[in-house]
Amino acid sequence: HLSADSGGASQAEIKRAYKNLAREWHPDKNKDPKAEDTFIKISKSYEILSNEERRSNFDRYGQMDESQPFGQSQHHHGFRSFHNSFYFDESFFHFPRSRDFADSKYLLHHAHFNSDVLPDSHKRPYLIKVTSEWCFACIHIEPVWKETVKELEPLGVGIGIVDLGFERRLANQLGAHRAPSIIGLVNGRVTFFHQAVVREHLRQFVEDLLPHKLVERITDDNYLSYLDNWHVENKPSVLLFDQVPIVPLLYKLTAFAFRDYVRFGQVDQGDKHCTRLLRQFNINTYAPTMLLFKEDTEKPVDIIQARGLKKQIMDEFVSNNKFLQVPRLVNQRLFDELCPVKQFHRRRKYCVLLITGEDQAFLPGNKAFVDFASANRKEVLRFAYVYQRQQQPLCQALRHNQAALSPQVVILERRSQAGKVLYRSVSGGWNGSEEDKYRLHEQLELLQKDPTYLSSDATLPELNNEMAPIFIIQWMNAAYEYILQIYDDLLYSNWREMMPILSLIFSALFILFGTVIIQAFSEPGENKPRQPKPKEQPQTEDDINPSIFLFGPCSRPPKKDFVEVTELTDITYTSNLVKLRPGHINVVLVLTNASKNALLRKYAKEVFSFSGTQTLHFSFLNADKHCYWMPSLLRSVSDAAESEGQSDDEEEPSDYAGHVLALNGHKKYFCLFRPVFTGDDPNDSSEDGALHHKLDRLGLWMERLMEGTLPRLQVPAWPSLDETANRDS
């Protein structure tokens, strides 16, 4: 279309026609499958017609492929001159060769930026280019941008492109109001690039985005203290031996990504103050070498040596050694990573925890525990230790609120995010003797053969954050970085980009002074002290509401801090069972008037960690009120079994208190839990205690229910509730 009747067309008419056709057939706007091919043909035609010399060559030789020479060699110089001039014409129209279609993988959108890029900036820096259509200046920085991306992306730097015309909301969030602009993003903080667009400047800009002191300079004088500091930092240590005195950017990026797990140091092999280090670890001076140390500061646990260290190799090297052999639990995040909650479709993982002290007297036992862990490394075992003084709530939950007189080893398995664990204390305590090691090894072998070996349960509180003081220091460093950023923006008079920060500062000041003024001019009557609430009387067991139970502050429920339990009556029976929605299950506890309070308390405790599941409902049935319902239900199952040629010789019990049924009303089947008295607590010989222990194994039964491994008993129809029995409650 563009070449038709172009013999007498002026350059202005050709340019106008090209502009209209290119806008119509641009692949980003036209979804026609032929759009890209048509667009390329339009661009090729414009390349011919927009330059008189090339147009003359085409009329003379009939060639369009720029990879072939034009007829004679003297045209080569003219073609290069044309290409340079067309480079700017193309940028004026924003058509294409200034931005390849391959660049679309870097395009950022508002939702994607906030959900993925912004959180990821805490692990790696991002270099973002802001561009737009009809941007003449954008085309000038394109070659440098491509070279920089080619260099930095393999190192782990994130790359992004924001189209100012199509992503105005994201551009406003970044504070970018003109194109071209180049932005650095790290730790959620935006920094603008103000220097000349040169590859060396962009590389230095990315390095300056990273926090200072990511990598420590190591020499003969400080390497021992650096490696020994694992006690305090609770992290492995990495040493990079390199002939270059400047820390490589790849190493800095790796240190930034794993800064929460591993400490990084660098040794200059050419420094005369590092000769003892090189000699002690027998370092090859011809290739970069990385050593990783854990508790043993004289022997590295892992080593890599290569002339060209790649990002993937370094990431695997560090990620495989993120933790010490026996790390100290210093916060909840570390506990969650080391000892994850058991998933139904994954293999069990057990945490072997040493409760000890930080005094010198405990060091031999702690070292013996590390040696035992190093000799018994298995995929299903995680070894860790805690200082009782630092984590008192956790230790009290595992030691029955008794003061620790000596170190103790506890084997536990986490069962829910709410803090529920199954555990068993290793008898005899722990002092690091060979007898202690043998006893612990024996119990670990028994555990892997029989998961029910963990006979005790508890709800653990959230761990204290022992790294809080370090967090305050990090916050102060971040504040310092923000002050430097504001100063930088003032220096370059970048007022539009500073508006979000200035707006936040003035808003905070306005709220602060507004609150002070309101309090100063408020009437005295408005500040009358509230009368204290009357002291609540302690509830007796008879006053307990059976539908709601509250737990103490140590429990961490998924959604609520109570379990809703509904009584099955003639009013609720149809909606909670007969017409229960497909896919939903009602877990029903059978009790009597005498056992109601004791069983309900234990029932709520056992099912509490499952109360966040939307398809589970919890109810109880009073067998004194509906004494015929359970026998009728079990009899219907027996009749169905006999009709199929099966027999069940088991006698029906006379007391159904403590039985639990998982009822699927839609598919007409149920799973049955029969109470088992374990007698785990010899000190509780009361009647309530005996009732309480009937449900000791209910938690494990609920796990199997969620896994779908329980046997299902089919019923032809649900029996009706018989209201003729005794109703006294």
UniProtKB/TrEMBL annotation:
Residue intervals of the J domain: 1-62
SUPFAM superfamilies: Chaperone J-domain (SSF46565), Thioredoxin-like (SSF52833)
Keywords: Autophagy, Glycoprotein, Membrane, Transmembrane, Transmembrane helix
Membrane-related topology note: Single-pass type IV membrane protein
CDD domains reported for this sequence: DnaJ (cd06257), TRX_DnaJ (cd02963)
Biased composition (Basic and acidic residues): 525-538
One annotated GO biological process: autophagy
Primary site of residence: endoplasmic reticulum
GO CC, alphabetical: endoplasmic reticulum membrane
Localization per Swiss-Prot or TrEMBL: Endoplasmic reticulum membrane
Keyword Membrane among record annotations: yes
Source superkingdom: Eukaryota
UniProt-annotated stretches for the region Disordered: 524-544
Chain segments annotated as transmembrane: 501-521
Role noted for this protein: Plays an important role in regulating the size of autophagosomes during the formation process.
Classification via PANTHER family: DNAJ HOMOLOG SUBFAMILY C MEMBER 16
Protein name: DnaJ homolog subfamily C member 16
Source organism per UniProt: Scophthalmus maximus
Organism lineage string: Eukaryota, Metazoa, Chordata, Craniata, Vertebrata
